[in-house]
Amino acid sequence: MTVEKMGTVPLYNVGDRIRVRKAAPLGHIRTPFYIRGHAGVVERVCGAFPNPEELAQQRDGLPARPLYRVRFRQRDVWPGYRGNPADVIELEIFQHWIEA
Amino acid sequence: MKPAAGRYAPYNYFQLMEVSLRELLVEKGIVTEDAIAGAMAAMRARGPERGAAMVARAWTDPAYKARLLESGSRAAEELGFEVPGLRLIVVENTPATHNVIVCTLCSCYPRMLLGLPPEWYKSRPYRSRVVREPRKVLAEFGLELPARVQLRVHDSNADMRYMVLPMRPAGTEGWSEARLAELVTRDCLIGVAVPKIPKNPKTRKS
Fold first, then answer.
1. Which pLDDT does position A5 carry in this prediction?
2. Which residue numbers of B are catalytic?
3. Do B32 and B134 reside in the same domain of the chain?
4. Do B146 and B64 share a structural domain?
5. Same domain (yes/no): B145, B163
6. Is residue A8 pLDDT above 80, yes or no?
7. B106 and B85, same structural domain?
8. Of A23, A48, A87, B8, which one has the greatest count of Cβ atoms within 10 A?
């Protein structure tokens, strides 16, 4: 991971297609397993927030990390999803969990 | 597990931890029993009426609705609801789109506006199923969503909190804000129900 991605400057904009990192580090991770490795589109930029993985270790979580709301198509996330093909699931993804 | 009536049930691990910690904090003079009781009473006193009032205002005031969708937190404060630290995103139901809220990782919920979350919201079945078979879960709540409607599931997995702005039911033209607010239940604000006019409405003035 590059130094920039770890920083506080938002690298992505609304409409950008991104992919969530597929990784399984130990600790308090706010990126659910079910969405790791999936691609979606940035729905909004939420601002920057202390890194929860650091907060859980009693550290200050700073610098704050950019947080995005990302929209994923349900049928991309769940094989055999039944419903309207336009159905979506939206989650908050920290920048350091985005790989491209 | 609920003990049978009148039967003693020993504390489980977390209950014991809570009691021990609370007694220690009181013993060391860090908090008082009164302060704890007061905080719990305040927590219990908050209910979904606040969220319902915001929805009713949005239904009757298009400018407020625009501000609500722009910043839920500011719109809450505008009605006098203190929401320190709450970053509320309000998602709007339309004839083409329905929204439902979950926290798959724990039980994040806009408690300052909706009060304590219901037990089912915190349960594993709801949290794990509403993301992968949301239409089936909604149907179990009695909400059959037409196939043509797009369903948006919102996982409040990090720092945002969410509330649904439901659609105003037909047949409520001319109703007062207070009367409209009565239609907006907690479940409507989570998105597992939609507001309905009661079949046998109490006769009352709007």
1. 52
2. 103, 106-108
3. no
4. yes
5. yes
6. no
7. yes
8. A87
- The pLDDT, as a whole number, for residue B4 is 63
Question: Does any CB of chain B come closer than 8 Å to the CB of residue A46?
Answer: yes
For residue A63, the tally of other CB atoms under 10 A from its CB is 13
Place of tokens 């039911």: B169
CATH topology of domain A3-97: SH3 type barrels. (2.30.30)
Task: Copy the structure tokens of residue B114.
Answer: 């909706």
pLDDT of residue B1: 54
Question: Is A90–B157 a contact, with Cβ atoms under 8 angstroms apart?
Answer: no
Is B65 domain-assigned? yes
Residue A97 is given by DSSP the state: G
Residue B97 near residue B198, CB atoms below 8 Å: no
Contact B159, B110 (CB under 8 A): no
Q: Which two tokens stand for residue B198?
A: 């009661």
Q: What CATH number did the domain enclosing B114 receive?
A: 3.90.330.10
**Residue A88 and residue B105: Cβ atoms within 8 Å?**
no
Please give the tally of structural domains in chain B: 2
Check if A78 contacts B (Cβ < 8 Å).
Answer: yes
Check whether residue B98 and residue B171 sit in a common domain.
yes
Q: Are residues B107 and B80 in the same domain?
A: yes
ipTM of the complex: 0.94
Per-residue model confidence (pLDDT) at position B2: 58
Q: Quick one: B79 and B164 in the same domain?
A: yes
Give the residue ranges of chain B where pLDDT is below 50.
206
pLDDT in tens, B101-120: 999 999 999 999 999 999 99
B131 interface with A at CB cutoff 8 Å: yes
Q: Give the end of a domain, one of B5, B30, B45.
A: B45
Q: Which residues pair with B99 in a beta bridge?
A: B152
**Are residues B158 and A94, on separate chains, in Cβ contact within 8 Å?**
yes
Chain B residues lying within 8 Å of A46, measured CB to CB:
87, 159-160
CB pairs under 8 A between A and B: 71
